[in-house]
Amino acid sequence: EGRLLKREDNNLVNVKIPGFDSEVKLREVVGDDILIADVGLFKFQGGVLTRIYTEVDYLFEDFPIIFGCLDEDGNYVLSLDGFGLVRVSADGKHLESIRRENGLRDLKINGLYVDQFNSIWAATNNGISKVNSRLGIKYFSSGDGLYGSVEALKFFEEDIIIGTLDGVYSLKQRKIKSHMDLGKSNTKLEKFEDVK
Question: What is the model's pTM?
Answer without folding.
Answer: 0.75
